[in-house]
């Protein structure tokens, strides 16, 4: 990997920028009533009604071809849309996974029948997806998954468990990585992807309650679940390759650095009311980092739009980006805590408290920091 | 990278490889005055890349010459090529006659002016005017890297209206771009060393602690390079874009120097080994023309002065132009 050419200078095209004022106007109407601490949830805030309202504007499945009910736009247009949604703190979790990953995956690896069946409802905001990766004994070591699908005539029988699946309990479908041949010791070989209708018999879903009392994740058990032949996505045994093709999409986007932006802007507002030179300097450092991250993410958006799969570069953006969004609550906490006799705005305090309780997760979801750094090191030629 | 970059950059890098070897750099460190290679650099044609074609230049934009500036840093070129290129374009635009044979540094207020010992002239600001001075020799080069910590003095040759030009921002942007090149070189050297050096019967690169440090080093280097590209975009240098670049470069510099020297161990600081050539310069540049604290305050103040919109809007509107 040549680092200097890995992030080419890239400008969002004017055509894509035209979408921005429309999205801003929509958000002004639809979420200005939301409390900041709820807006701080951004892509983990689940609101099916909001997702359907977005879909009615054609903004779910923006990059899916029009023939399947999508917007037929490019990755830059989606960057503009997503940037505005995240910066405003819109609750986009319901359609997020289908929009970012499952739709594009089905478009790339799905059969024509699968595309016709699944993509139009995704684009209408009527069909929500989750991704089944982690298992109770397979976290960072994803290739060790044990959930197994066994061919049985013209169907498959699925047995096993998935855990830490974001919003499985509110989703319609899961795209899962499971073993179809061999043993866990065969690692990346013998894995396949399935699309699982979560209403099928034999599936139990238990939301996992967090210390914050939110339930973003669930645990799922599959007991001899009968899947139709056409539940297989792509090629039997090619699951690992297919999953890896998604990673550049999953790791390079602005959701990897905007998770605490709502709080950053509240903090800036507080500073306007009562200036603090030390904080002002720290704010400037964050703005500089954000400028660089945004340019890097747009560079990868361009490479994705060109059909490339910059997986290692995406890992680099995610590690830098999640460090940035993890730092924001810590910095704001340091600022608030340093002036004990000043009343903090209750909304800001609630937003800060929410993010402080979960910012450690930012570098876990979507591939841990340690796994990413290992990937980057290999990409740099360290062996 | 575009083809344009390659057509321009490849011959420039070949020139640098020819005229700027580590032994040349060491030789130049021992004395002040123009670098031996200055004549070749000046005659190469690259020096007027920013001048309009009608004035004998190549009519290139800041973004197009950015890779050249990065390459100067990567080579630790002991000559103010980038600064002279920019100063010549500026003076020409103001209708001033370009001095021949002049190696020009940009010298806004700064505790140290890198490359000043390798320059004949300096562009300074006073009373809203830009002055070109023929520099007297300085005495203090605390980083032993061809920079002067003395106040630059000399005869004023010409003066032009500053016309809104913030020399500090210009100098900081060029510093950030050259720093990003130095950081790429430092990272490359560290990666190579980690693959070659063995301890406990295996290469350092097998140790996860080393792998992760170098991965972080690469992140900082890329972040600094991207921010420097932001500063070298648009029609002219801009204080906010320069600020973002110098903040990212400064933060990255201290992290990457620490990582590179940790990976190398003691050999890294020895005179005979090349790493110190780059890290000494990098620390000197980080100190010059406003460090990350100075520029972060500029950025923070600008953000606070912009009430409308989110920080994402601020970044897009003020730091989002990459053309």
Overall geometry of chain B comes to globular
* Low-confidence segments of chain A: none
Count of strand segments of chain B? 6
Order of neighbouring strands in the sheet with most strands of chain A: 1-4-5-8
What is the CA-atom radius of gyration of chain A, in angstroms?
Answer: 21 Å
Spatial gap, N to C terminus of chain A: 14 Å
Quickly give the CATH architecture of the largest domain in chain B. Answer: Orthogonal Bundle
Number of folding domains of chain A? Answer: 3
CATH homologous superfamily caption of the largest domain in chain B = Acyl-CoA dehydrogenase/oxidase, N-terminal domain
Chain-averaged pLDDT of chain B: 95
Mean pLDDT over the full residue set of chain A: 96
Shape of chain A: globular
- Strand tally of chain A is 8
Number of helices of chain A: 14
Low-confidence parts of chain B: none
Strands of the largest sheet of chain B, in order across it? 1-2-3-4
Question: Can you give a write-up of this model?
Answer:
- The complex is a heterodimer of chains A (383) and B (323).
- Chain A is an alpha+beta fold.
- Chain A has three domains: 8-127, Butyryl-Coa Dehydrogenase, subunit A, domain 1 (Orthogonal Bundle), CATH 1.10.540; 131-237, Beta Barrel (Butyryl-CoA Dehydrogenase, subunit A, domain 2), CATH 2.40.110; 252-379, Up-down Bundle (Butyryl-CoA Dehydrogenase, subunit A, domain 3).
- Chain A has helices at 3-6, 14-17, 19-30, 36-39, 48-56, 75-88, 93-109, 112-123, 239-251, 261-273, 277-305, 311-337, 346-358, 369-379; strands spanning 129-132, 148-152, 155-166, 173-179, 191-197, 203-208, 217-228, 232-233.
- In chain A, strands 1-4-5-8 form a four-stranded mixed β-sheet, with helices on one face. A four-stranded antiparallel β-sheet of chain A has the order 2-3-7-6, with no helix packed on it.
- In chain A, helix 10 runs parallel beside helix 12 (311-337), helix 11 packs antiparallel against helix 12 (311-337) and helix 12 crosses helix 14.
- With 323 residues, chain B is α+β, with helices and mostly antiparallel strands.
- Chain B contains eleven helices and six strands.
- In chain B, the strands form two sheets. A four-stranded mixed β-sheet of chain B has the order 1-2-3-4. Chain B has a two-stranded antiparallel sheet with strand order 5-6.
- In chain B, a hairpin with a 2-residue loop joins strand 5 and strand 6.
- Chain B folds into two domains: 3-165, Acyl-CoA dehydrogenase/oxidase, N-terminal domain (Butyryl-Coa Dehydrogenase, subunit A, domain 1, Orthogonal Bundle); 168-319, Up-down Bundle (Butyryl-CoA Dehydrogenase, subunit A, domain 3).
- Chains A and B meet through helix 1, helix 6, helix 10, helix 11 and helix 12 of A and helix 4, helix 6, helix 7, helix 8 and helix 10 of B.
